[in-house]
Amino acid sequence: MDLNHGALEIFACVVMISSSVVGNTLLIFCTWRCINEHLRTSFTLIFSLAFVHLVNNLVVNILKTVYAFGVWLEPVGCKVIVFTTTCTTTLAIWFTLYLALLYCLKLCRVVHPPAEAASRNLRKYHLSLLFALWFAGIAICSPLLLYVQKTGQLNLKNETYQEFSSLIYAECKTEYKNDKIEIFYGKIFLVAVDVLPLLIMLLVGFRIAHLVWQHKKTTYGGIWIGNDATETEVLRACKYILLLILLITSLWISYFTLMYCLKNFKYYYFAPSVLTVLSSGYSAVSPYLLMLINYKVQMRCFCCKDEKIPVSLSASSPFVSPYA
Questions:
Q1: CA distances from 143 to 63, 85, 140, 259, 264 (A)
Q2: pLDDT, tens digit, for every residue of 77-136?
Q3: What are the distances in angstroms from CA 81 to CA 107, 159, 169?
Q4: Whole-prediction pTM
Q5: Is the distance from CB of 100 to CB of 245 less than 8 angstroms?
Q6: Torsion of CA 170, 172, 286, 237, to 10 degrees
Q7: Is 179 buried (19+), middle (13-18) or exposed (0-12) by CB count in 10 A?
Q8: Quick check: 311 and 40 in contact, CB under 8 A?
Q9: Whole-angstrom Cα distance, residue 39 to residue 77?
Q10: pLDDT tens digit string along 157-181?
Q11: Calpha distance 152→72 (Å, rounded)
Protein backbone atom coordinates (compact mmCIF):
# COMPACT_ATOMS: atom_id res chain seq x y z
CA MET A 1 0.00 0.00 0.00
CA ASP A 2 1.23 3.48 -0.87
CA LEU A 3 2.11 5.49 2.22
CA ASN A 4 0.40 8.58 0.79
CA HIS A 5 -2.90 6.72 0.62
CA GLY A 6 -2.49 5.57 4.24
CA ALA A 7 -1.61 9.02 5.59
CA LEU A 8 -5.24 9.76 6.44
CA GLU A 9 -5.57 6.52 8.37
CA ILE A 10 -2.29 7.14 10.20
CA PHE A 11 -3.42 10.64 11.14
CA ALA A 12 -6.75 9.32 12.47
CA CYS A 13 -5.01 6.62 14.53
CA VAL A 14 -2.49 9.07 15.99
CA VAL A 15 -5.24 11.52 16.98
CA MET A 16 -7.33 8.77 18.58
CA ILE A 17 -4.34 7.31 20.45
CA SER A 18 -3.15 10.70 21.71
CA SER A 19 -6.58 11.83 22.86
CA SER A 20 -7.40 8.52 24.54
CA VAL A 21 -4.04 8.08 26.29
CA VAL A 22 -4.00 11.64 27.64
CA GLY A 23 -7.66 11.64 28.69
CA ASN A 24 -7.80 8.18 30.26
CA THR A 25 -4.43 8.52 32.01
CA LEU A 26 -5.51 11.85 33.49
CA LEU A 27 -8.87 10.34 34.45
CA ILE A 28 -7.23 7.42 36.27
CA PHE A 29 -4.69 9.69 37.96
CA CYS A 30 -7.23 12.21 39.23
CA THR A 31 -9.79 9.60 40.28
CA TRP A 32 -7.19 7.57 42.17
CA ARG A 33 -6.11 10.60 44.17
CA CYS A 34 -9.69 11.47 45.11
CA ILE A 35 -10.45 8.24 46.97
CA ASN A 36 -9.50 7.26 50.47
CA GLU A 37 -9.65 3.83 52.07
CA HIS A 38 -13.17 3.21 50.70
CA LEU A 39 -13.42 2.52 46.98
CA ARG A 40 -16.70 3.73 45.53
CA THR A 41 -18.47 1.67 42.91
CA SER A 42 -18.51 4.55 40.45
CA PHE A 43 -14.72 4.83 40.74
CA THR A 44 -14.21 1.12 39.97
CA LEU A 45 -16.41 1.52 36.92
CA ILE A 46 -14.39 4.54 35.81
CA PHE A 47 -11.16 2.56 36.23
CA SER A 48 -12.59 -0.30 34.18
CA LEU A 49 -13.80 2.01 31.41
CA ALA A 50 -10.46 3.83 31.26
CA PHE A 51 -8.53 0.56 31.10
CA VAL A 52 -10.75 -0.77 28.29
CA HIS A 53 -10.26 2.45 26.33
CA LEU A 54 -6.49 2.33 26.74
CA VAL A 55 -6.34 -1.28 25.56
CA ASN A 56 -8.46 -0.44 22.52
CA ASN A 57 -6.17 2.35 21.40
CA LEU A 58 -2.78 1.00 22.44
CA VAL A 59 -3.41 -2.38 20.80
CA VAL A 60 -5.82 -1.91 17.89
CA ASN A 61 -4.87 1.55 16.65
CA ILE A 62 -1.14 0.94 17.01
CA LEU A 63 -1.45 -2.21 14.88
CA LYS A 64 -3.49 -0.25 12.33
CA THR A 65 -0.79 2.42 12.24
CA VAL A 66 1.93 -0.17 11.70
CA TYR A 67 -0.05 -1.76 8.88
CA ALA A 68 -0.74 1.64 7.31
CA PHE A 69 3.03 2.17 7.09
CA GLY A 70 3.23 -0.87 4.84
CA VAL A 71 4.25 -3.57 7.32
CA TRP A 72 2.70 -6.91 6.32
CA LEU A 73 -0.02 -8.02 8.72
CA GLU A 74 0.42 -11.54 10.07
CA PRO A 75 -2.55 -13.83 10.90
CA VAL A 76 -1.89 -13.29 14.60
CA GLY A 77 -2.27 -9.55 14.07
CA CYS A 78 -5.66 -10.11 12.46
CA LYS A 79 -6.81 -12.19 15.41
CA VAL A 80 -5.61 -9.58 17.91
CA ILE A 81 -7.26 -6.69 16.05
CA VAL A 82 -10.66 -8.36 15.63
CA PHE A 83 -10.75 -9.84 19.15
CA THR A 84 -9.59 -6.67 20.90
CA THR A 85 -11.94 -4.42 18.92
CA THR A 86 -14.97 -6.63 19.61
CA CYS A 87 -14.15 -7.28 23.27
CA THR A 88 -13.34 -3.68 24.21
CA THR A 89 -16.42 -2.38 22.39
CA THR A 90 -18.68 -4.85 24.21
CA LEU A 91 -17.13 -4.14 27.61
CA ALA A 92 -17.35 -0.38 27.05
CA ILE A 93 -21.07 -0.71 26.30
CA TRP A 94 -21.67 -2.88 29.37
CA PHE A 95 -19.71 -0.65 31.75
CA THR A 96 -21.42 2.48 30.42
CA LEU A 97 -24.80 0.83 30.94
CA TYR A 98 -23.81 -0.15 34.48
CA LEU A 99 -22.68 3.41 35.21
CA ALA A 100 -25.93 4.79 33.80
CA LEU A 101 -27.99 2.40 35.94
CA LEU A 102 -25.97 3.30 39.03
CA TYR A 103 -26.53 7.04 38.67
CA CYS A 104 -30.14 6.52 37.60
CA LEU A 105 -30.77 4.79 40.94
CA LYS A 106 -28.94 7.58 42.78
CA LEU A 107 -31.01 10.23 41.04
CA CYS A 108 -34.17 8.27 41.78
CA ARG A 109 -33.27 8.37 45.48
CA VAL A 110 -32.79 12.14 45.23
CA VAL A 111 -36.13 12.80 43.53
CA HIS A 112 -38.07 10.09 45.38
CA PRO A 113 -36.32 9.59 48.75
CA PRO A 114 -36.88 6.11 50.19
CA ALA A 115 -38.17 5.50 53.65
CA GLU A 116 -35.07 3.55 54.67
CA ALA A 117 -31.41 4.32 54.18
CA ALA A 118 -29.52 2.47 51.49
CA SER A 119 -27.63 -0.61 52.56
CA ARG A 120 -23.87 -0.25 52.83
CA ASN A 121 -23.32 -3.95 52.11
CA LEU A 122 -24.05 -3.60 48.40
CA ARG A 123 -20.49 -2.57 47.54
CA LYS A 124 -19.17 -6.13 47.50
CA TYR A 125 -22.02 -7.23 45.20
CA HIS A 126 -21.19 -4.39 42.82
CA LEU A 127 -17.55 -5.48 42.70
CA SER A 128 -18.56 -9.10 42.10
CA LEU A 129 -20.81 -8.03 39.23
CA LEU A 130 -18.03 -5.91 37.77
CA PHE A 131 -15.60 -8.84 37.74
CA ALA A 132 -18.35 -11.05 36.27
CA LEU A 133 -18.78 -8.56 33.40
CA TRP A 134 -15.05 -8.66 32.72
CA PHE A 135 -15.04 -12.46 32.63
CA ALA A 136 -18.20 -12.68 30.50
CA GLY A 137 -16.95 -10.15 27.94
CA ILE A 138 -13.64 -11.94 27.44
CA ALA A 139 -15.30 -15.38 27.32
CA ILE A 140 -17.91 -14.29 24.75
CA CYS A 141 -15.32 -12.88 22.36
CA SER A 142 -12.70 -15.62 22.82
CA PRO A 143 -14.05 -17.86 19.98
CA LEU A 144 -13.09 -15.12 17.54
CA LEU A 145 -9.45 -16.06 18.13
CA LEU A 146 -10.20 -19.41 16.50
CA TYR A 147 -12.31 -18.20 13.60
CA VAL A 148 -10.51 -15.04 12.45
CA GLN A 149 -8.22 -15.72 9.50
CA LYS A 150 -6.14 -13.62 7.14
CA THR A 151 -7.01 -13.92 3.48
CA GLY A 152 -5.10 -12.53 0.51
CA GLN A 153 -7.76 -13.20 -2.10
CA LEU A 154 -8.74 -9.56 -2.47
CA ASN A 155 -5.15 -8.58 -3.16
CA LEU A 156 -5.10 -10.86 -6.16
CA LYS A 157 -8.55 -10.15 -7.52
CA ASN A 158 -8.69 -6.40 -7.28
CA GLU A 159 -5.48 -4.41 -7.59
CA THR A 160 -7.40 -1.12 -7.64
CA TYR A 161 -8.53 -1.60 -4.06
CA GLN A 162 -4.99 -2.50 -3.04
CA GLU A 163 -3.68 0.67 -4.64
CA PHE A 164 -6.12 3.15 -3.16
CA SER A 165 -7.10 1.72 0.23
CA SER A 166 -5.96 -0.11 3.28
CA LEU A 167 -7.27 -3.65 3.16
CA ILE A 168 -7.02 -4.36 6.86
CA TYR A 169 -10.82 -4.56 7.19
CA ALA A 170 -11.07 -6.76 4.10
CA GLU A 171 -8.10 -9.04 4.74
CA CYS A 172 -9.00 -9.91 8.35
CA LYS A 173 -12.02 -12.13 7.80
CA THR A 174 -14.01 -14.21 10.27
CA GLU A 175 -14.44 -17.59 8.64
CA TYR A 176 -16.67 -19.96 10.61
CA LYS A 177 -16.52 -23.71 10.19
CA ASN A 178 -20.21 -24.10 9.36
CA ASP A 179 -23.24 -21.97 8.59
CA LYS A 180 -24.97 -22.60 11.93
CA ILE A 181 -22.08 -21.18 13.94
CA GLU A 182 -21.91 -18.18 11.62
CA ILE A 183 -25.64 -17.46 11.94
CA PHE A 184 -26.16 -18.08 15.66
CA TYR A 185 -22.82 -16.84 17.00
CA GLY A 186 -21.49 -14.40 14.43
CA LYS A 187 -24.68 -12.75 13.22
CA ILE A 188 -27.08 -13.11 16.15
CA PHE A 189 -25.24 -13.61 19.43
CA LEU A 190 -22.38 -11.13 18.97
CA VAL A 191 -24.79 -8.47 17.72
CA ALA A 192 -27.30 -9.13 20.50
CA VAL A 193 -24.72 -8.70 23.30
CA ASP A 194 -24.23 -5.14 22.04
CA VAL A 195 -27.69 -4.21 20.79
CA LEU A 196 -29.65 -5.30 23.87
CA PRO A 197 -27.50 -3.27 26.32
CA LEU A 198 -27.72 -0.29 23.97
CA LEU A 199 -31.52 -0.52 23.91
CA ILE A 200 -31.61 -0.78 27.71
CA MET A 201 -29.22 2.16 27.88
CA LEU A 202 -31.58 4.28 25.79
CA LEU A 203 -34.47 3.42 28.13
CA VAL A 204 -32.31 4.33 31.12
CA GLY A 205 -31.46 7.59 29.39
CA PHE A 206 -35.15 8.44 28.98
CA ARG A 207 -35.67 7.59 32.66
CA ILE A 208 -32.79 9.86 33.71
CA ALA A 209 -34.13 12.71 31.58
CA HIS A 210 -37.56 12.28 33.19
CA LEU A 211 -36.07 12.29 36.70
CA VAL A 212 -34.05 15.43 35.93
CA TRP A 213 -37.24 17.12 34.73
CA GLN A 214 -39.06 16.00 37.90
CA HIS A 215 -36.27 17.36 40.07
CA LYS A 216 -36.36 20.73 38.32
CA LYS A 217 -40.14 20.89 38.60
CA THR A 218 -40.03 20.04 42.30
CA THR A 219 -37.35 22.64 42.96
CA TYR A 220 -39.37 25.42 41.38
CA GLY A 221 -42.48 24.19 43.15
CA GLY A 222 -41.28 25.60 46.44
CA ILE A 223 -40.36 22.27 48.06
CA TRP A 224 -37.03 22.26 49.86
CA ILE A 225 -34.72 19.65 48.40
CA GLY A 226 -31.56 20.80 50.03
CA ASN A 227 -28.26 22.14 48.82
CA ASP A 228 -26.17 19.09 49.45
CA ALA A 229 -23.05 18.67 47.32
CA THR A 230 -23.76 14.98 46.80
CA GLU A 231 -27.08 15.78 45.13
CA THR A 232 -25.39 18.37 42.94
CA GLU A 233 -22.84 15.77 41.90
CA VAL A 234 -25.54 13.23 41.05
CA LEU A 235 -27.50 15.72 38.95
CA ARG A 236 -24.41 16.87 37.11
CA ALA A 237 -23.27 13.27 36.55
CA CYS A 238 -26.63 12.24 35.12
CA LYS A 239 -26.56 15.07 32.59
CA TYR A 240 -23.13 14.01 31.34
CA ILE A 241 -24.18 10.36 31.30
CA LEU A 242 -26.96 11.34 28.90
CA LEU A 243 -24.25 12.68 26.59
CA LEU A 244 -22.29 9.43 26.98
CA ILE A 245 -25.36 7.38 26.06
CA LEU A 246 -26.00 9.50 22.98
CA LEU A 247 -22.33 9.33 21.98
CA ILE A 248 -21.79 5.59 22.30
CA THR A 249 -25.13 4.73 20.67
CA SER A 250 -24.61 6.97 17.64
CA LEU A 251 -21.02 5.79 17.13
CA TRP A 252 -21.95 2.10 17.38
CA ILE A 253 -24.88 2.41 14.97
CA SER A 254 -22.77 4.36 12.48
CA TYR A 255 -19.91 1.85 12.63
CA PHE A 256 -22.22 -1.15 12.29
CA THR A 257 -24.07 0.39 9.35
CA LEU A 258 -20.92 1.30 7.41
CA MET A 259 -19.05 -1.90 8.21
CA TYR A 260 -21.72 -4.55 7.76
CA CYS A 261 -24.61 -2.99 5.84
CA LEU A 262 -22.64 -1.15 3.14
CA LYS A 263 -20.58 -3.97 1.66
CA ASN A 264 -18.36 -1.84 -0.59
CA PHE A 265 -17.71 1.01 1.85
CA LYS A 266 -14.61 -0.62 3.36
CA TYR A 267 -12.81 -0.46 0.00
CA TYR A 268 -12.82 3.33 -0.31
CA TYR A 269 -9.54 5.07 0.49
CA PHE A 270 -11.12 7.09 3.34
CA ALA A 271 -12.97 4.11 4.86
CA PRO A 272 -10.21 2.98 7.30
CA SER A 273 -9.90 6.45 8.83
CA VAL A 274 -13.69 6.82 9.16
CA LEU A 275 -14.05 3.38 10.75
CA THR A 276 -11.15 4.14 13.10
CA VAL A 277 -12.81 7.35 14.30
CA LEU A 278 -16.14 5.58 14.81
CA SER A 279 -14.66 2.59 16.63
CA SER A 280 -12.30 4.63 18.84
CA GLY A 281 -14.19 7.92 19.13
CA TYR A 282 -15.90 6.91 22.36
CA SER A 283 -12.62 5.98 24.03
CA ALA A 284 -11.12 9.31 22.95
CA VAL A 285 -13.98 11.59 24.10
CA SER A 286 -15.62 9.81 27.06
CA PRO A 287 -12.78 10.31 29.61
CA TYR A 288 -13.15 14.08 29.38
CA LEU A 289 -16.90 13.81 29.98
CA LEU A 290 -16.29 11.47 32.92
CA MET A 291 -13.86 13.97 34.44
CA LEU A 292 -16.55 16.64 34.27
CA ILE A 293 -18.79 14.55 36.54
CA ASN A 294 -16.58 15.33 39.55
CA TYR A 295 -14.68 18.26 38.10
CA LYS A 296 -14.44 20.20 41.41
CA VAL A 297 -13.01 17.22 43.25
CA GLN A 298 -10.76 16.33 40.29
CA MET A 299 -9.20 19.82 40.28
CA ARG A 300 -8.60 19.74 44.03
CA CYS A 301 -7.00 16.32 43.78
CA PHE A 302 -4.86 17.38 40.86
CA CYS A 303 -3.63 20.58 42.47
CA CYS A 304 -3.30 19.59 46.12
CA LYS A 305 -0.80 16.76 46.54
CA ASP A 306 -0.76 16.47 50.33
CA GLU A 307 -4.42 17.08 51.03
CA LYS A 308 -6.64 14.02 51.33
CA ILE A 309 -10.06 14.45 49.85
CA PRO A 310 -12.87 12.48 51.47
CA VAL A 311 -15.03 10.28 49.30
CA SER A 312 -18.34 11.80 50.31
CA LEU A 313 -18.94 15.26 48.98
CA SER A 314 -21.62 15.88 51.55
CA ALA A 315 -18.98 16.64 54.16
CA SER A 316 -18.20 19.93 52.43
CA SER A 317 -21.75 21.16 52.82
CA PRO A 318 -23.12 22.66 56.07
CA PHE A 319 -26.41 20.84 55.43
CA VAL A 320 -26.77 17.08 55.28
CA SER A 321 -29.24 16.01 52.65
CA PRO A 322 -32.03 13.66 53.76
CA TYR A 323 -31.57 11.82 50.42
CA ALA A 324 -27.84 11.08 50.64
A1: 21, 14, 7, 20, 26
A2: 888 888 999 999 999 999 999 999 998 998 888 887 776 655 666 677 888 899 999 999
A3: 38, 24, 10
A4: 0.82
A5: yes
A6: 110
A7: exposed
A8: yes
A9: 37
A10: 444 444 444 556 666 777 787 888 8
A11: 11
